[in-house]
Amino acid sequence: LRTAAVIPAAGRGVRLGPGAPKALRTLGGVPILVHAVRAMARARAVQVIVVVAPPEGAAEVRALLDAHGLPESTDIRVVPGGESRQESVRLGLAVLPDDVDVVLVHDAARPLVPVETVESVVEAVRGGAPAVVPGLPAADTVKSVDPGTGIVTGTPDRSLLRAVQTPQGFDRTTLAKAHATVTRDVTDDASMVEQLGVPVLVVPGHEEAFKVTRPLDLVLAEAVLARRRA
Ligand code: C5P
């Protein structure tokens, strides 16, 4: 049985400022998405990759991936995405081959995730955890606020918080069930599994698995890449 990685890359990247869809912008001259696909393909455990392209951009993304010469040993599929991240992931899950039993979901926007992080998530799922997310202790104190008044409504104990990253790994049946039953809007896949009452395990994440969201993140990503190439 095989492990697949679904990479949602259909976001517009509005917070990054004007320009191409986020996944198609470049880092070190290479599209962010290509970095993300390579990061998954580098993991020996991952044999299938499904890239979820912008709704009108599947052909462009296919051509882009082919132009960057990805490893022949990995089965790479491209499908058009949807309006929300959740819908994009669901469209990706729909084209998984039958012999896949473990699924990673990895944001295209996390191009620099180290291979060790990917492998440790797969290992934990293969070891019996139905859902696994990489996470780091929260650096900032986090508050909840009343969005209407801006008044703070609470300060959760920071030692209990983790900032979670991707790839998030799942037993395929569990993830498929979550996507078939949970309709409420969510920002990651694990929270859908939580709503089913299935335990989600946190394993150590990595600083370099940060998400490229705002302009400063591009500066950081370029610096990390330059350090790796040095
Ligand atoms: O918006 P956010 O930063 O949480 O997006 C995380 C990932 O989900 C990105 O890789 C983005 O391309 C993807 N996404 C998607 N389809 C959408 C919205 C976001 O594939 N409609």
State the CATH topology: Spore Coat Polysaccharide Biosynthesis Protein SpsA, Chain A
Please identify, by name, the CATH architecture: Alpha-Beta Complex
Global shape: globular
Number of helices: 7
Largest sheet: 8 strands, mixed
Overall pLDDT metric:
96
Task: Name the CATH superfamily classification.
Answer: Spore Coat Polysaccharide Biosynthesis Protein SpsA, Chain A
Text of the CATH class: Alpha Beta
The count of strands amounts to 12
Helical percentage: 25-40%
Number of domains: 1
Termini separation: 38 Å
Rg, alpha carbons: 17 Å
Strand content: 15-25%
Question: Cofactors and ligands present?
Answer: cytidine-5'-monophosphate
**H/E series:** EEEHEHEHEHEEEEEHHEH
Poorly predicted spans: none
**SS-based structural class?**
alpha/beta
